[in-house]
């Protein structure tokens, strides 16, 4: 039996079992539809492991008004789960405090699972790019790049700025959103993850803002992870590491970030599945 067939059967089992016993976790029908579509289209085959989420493609053109804000969004799924970054006219855009691009990768998870053999590694990753106080300088081609160690896919949108641009109005906008009071924001996170029980998983939650936001995680049972344990650890980059996952770990984990200027919050759904013999 090929690995892609195994994954497809696991996903179908996920839908069936979740419907029977986990309605309180899966009230969001979007998760059902997305996993079902993934299984139906056999997106996990060898030749097509990485893809952008259907219905959420970047538009060919994005139009914003001078001095206002826009947010570009991108979501990719695949096996293994991808990391996402953005380019403007082919040049990488820095997001967050770290300039170590390797920090984008699920490096801790990979180390812990190195000797475990074949894993599922199926996941969806989402990213936002915030463009504040638009000016003509913000016009250009913006690319969402989703990649793994072996694959890379790209979506692009052409950003245009309309409306009258006034230097004083722009300066006022910039001062209002100065570096000294930039609201806490989450720009990269894991939205869904499927993995074999017994493995370790790293759920991404990358943040930006000034002062540097404080990151916190809450389990599906509503317990805040305040300090490292044998089970949970909030990494320095904001990600949540969960060791030796089991069926009881299934559910929505909430990542929150906050600073003096604002708060932001996302959720990620974890589905541990049985190891097939």
From TrEMBL:
Residues 68-160, 198-267 form the Ig-like domain. Keywords: Disulfide bond, Immunoglobulin domain, Membrane, Repeat, Secreted, Signal, Transmembrane, Transmembrane helix. GO terms for cellular component: extracellular region; neuron projection. InterPro entries: Ig-like_dom, Ig-like_dom_sf, Ig-like_fold, Ig_I-set, Ig_sub, Ig_sub2, Neural/epithelial_adhesion. The chain crosses the membrane at residues 6-27. SMART domains: IG, IGc2. It is found in: Secreted. It comes from the Eukaryota. PROSITE patterns: IG_LIKE. It holds the Pfam family I-set. The keyword Transmembrane helix applies. This is Ig-like domain-containing protein. It comes from Mytilus coruscus.
């Amino acid at each position: 039996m090929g690995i892609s067939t195994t994954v497809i059967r696991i996903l179908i089992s996920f839908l069936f079992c979740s419907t029977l016993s986990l309605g309180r976790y899966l009230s969001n029908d979007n998760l059902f539809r997305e996993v079902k579509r993934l299984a139906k289209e056999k997106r996990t085959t060898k030749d097509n492991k990485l893809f952008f989420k259907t219905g959420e493609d970047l538009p060919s053109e994005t139009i914003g008004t001078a001095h206002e804000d826009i947010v570009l969004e991108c979501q990719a799924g695949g096996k293994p789960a991808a990391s996402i970054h953005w380019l403007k006219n082919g040049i990488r855009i820095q997001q967050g405090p770290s300039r170590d691009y390797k920090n984008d990768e699920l490096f801790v998870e990979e180390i812990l699972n190195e000797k475990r053999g074949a894993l599922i590694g199926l996941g969806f990753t989402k990213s936002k790019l915030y463009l504040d106080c638009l000016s003509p300088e913000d016009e250009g081609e913006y690319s969402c790049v989703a990649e793994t160690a072996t694959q890379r896919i790209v979506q692009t949108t052409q950003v245009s700025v309309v409306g009258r641009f006034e230097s004083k109005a722009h300066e006022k906008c910039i001062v209002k959103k100065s570096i000294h009071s930039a609201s806490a924001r989450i720009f990269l996170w894991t939205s869904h993850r499927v993995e074999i029980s017994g493995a370790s998983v790293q759920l991404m939650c990358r943040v930006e803002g000034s002062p540097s936001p404080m990151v916190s995680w809450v389990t599906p049972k509503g317990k805040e992870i305040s300090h490292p344990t044998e089970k949970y650890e909030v990494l320095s980059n904001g990600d949540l590491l969960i060791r030796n996952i089991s069926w009881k770990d299934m559910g929505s984990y909430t990542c929150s970030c906050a600073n003096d200027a604002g708060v932001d919050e996302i959720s990620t759904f974890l589905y541990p599945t049985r190891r097939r013999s």
